[in-house]
Amino acid sequence: MQIPSHIEEIIRQQSQSGQTLNxxxxxxxxxxxxxxxxxxxxxxxxxxxxxxxxxxxPAFLEAALKAGVAGIEIASLGEAAKAVNAGFTPEQLxxxxxxxxxxxxxxxxxxxxxxxxxxxxxxxxxxQNLCTKAGKTQDILxxxxxxxxxxxxxxxxxxxxxxxxxxxxQLDVALPQILALDKLNFRGLHVFAASGVLKVDDLLHxxxxxxxLTKRIESQYAGITCDIIDFGGGFGVDYEETGHDFDPQAYAxxxxxxxxxxxxxxxxxxxxxxxxxxxxxxxxxxEIIDIKTSRGKKQVICAGGINHFRRPAALSINHxxxxxxxxxxxxxxxxESIHQEKVxxxxxxxxxxxxxxxxxxxxxxxxxxxxxxxxxxxYGLTMSNxxxxxxxxxxxxxxGA
Length: 401
Ligand SMILES: Cc1ncc(COP(=O)(O)O)c(C=O)c1O
Hints:
Blueprint: H1 5-15, E1 22-26, H2 29-41, E2 46-51, H3 58-67, E3 71-74, H4 77-85, E4 93-95, H5 102-110, E5 115-118, H6 121-134, E6 138-145, E7 155-156, E8 166-167, H7 171-179, E9 184-190, E10 194-195, H8 200-220, E11 228-230, H9 248-261, E12 268-273, H10 275-278, E13 282-294, E14 297-302, H11 311-315, E15 321-324, E16 338-346, E17 355-365, E18 370-373, E19 395-398
Parallel strand pairs: 1-19, 2-3, 2-12, 3-4, 4-5, 5-6, 6-8, 6-9, 9-11, 11-12, 14-16
Antiparallel strand pairs: 1-13, 7-10, 13-14, 13-18, 15-18, 16-17
Helix pairs in contact: 2-3, 5-6, 8-9
Bound molecules: pyridoxal-5'-phosphate (PLP).
């Protein structure tokens, strides 16, 4: 992995402070670029939302706002507050996720968010009651757990028994009940198959299934139109550096052709993207505190572990990484270092689960150097177990801020 020179410069500057370096460095220019690129290439009717769960740092929200995303996909009241603080209006928020509390739904209804994506009949009834009390109606999408999954995706959200949405097979029981709730404006469907998908055809296959489902619903239920179709997120990034990145142009072309085939022009299509927008904007940079050999294998211990960067351990993958050599003085003559070998990287936590990377080939690394993990802008700090062992939070350094 190559680190951009301006990021390496910050790492070197920060390392001179005398403090142990343990930080995320963010450059959100890439998020802006990706947003513009999607807005230009997607067919008419497609709206791009930023799924802020990928990275809720204000700099990411600000960049998304400035680049002109349609809005923010939220999954909690905390996310709603952060989005509004960053300058988004409640009308730009769409809310997906199981287990929305009464307080969360109340805020959404009272503040007129754009759509709530309901995940169960219970949720539908809760919104109906809230709307009745408030004298309002609420636009909703129905989230479906399609009978389809993308096997080689990093995380699947549909197929099998899932906590997300209502099973496709239960639709004929659930939908009439939802349509009978007079305070709910049924606007369409939300079907999100999987996250971290690199093959465009897999995601397009999901689109096709949703289009088929839409056709079936509209022919079966008189007067019902799915005028919003939300495909969730899912665009993957090439963590394993295979050279085969997700091709958004191929996706845009495939979707455009499908919209024409199904005569679905004039509808709204929603993408709620997190990973593809944010991953390339972040580097987790953590100082090598110790190196030792254990039964023939080098163990490299860094300042931050899964408390600050849990993704590699949680998903059993290695992120692309490199070492910034700082040429620091040795503590003693026989101190260990790494030369062209496969090693283990972990953090300072008292659990074997505290893995940053394993069997990763390193050219040259020494105590005091900085291990830099790329594609760490999405699901980095935000999905880590920060409080475990109560280490200080890593710094979050924003380029240009
Ligand atoms: C409902 C929903 N929308 C969007 C996303 C973002 O997905 P991705 O990061 O794959 O784009 C997620 C991720 O978990 C999600 O759960």
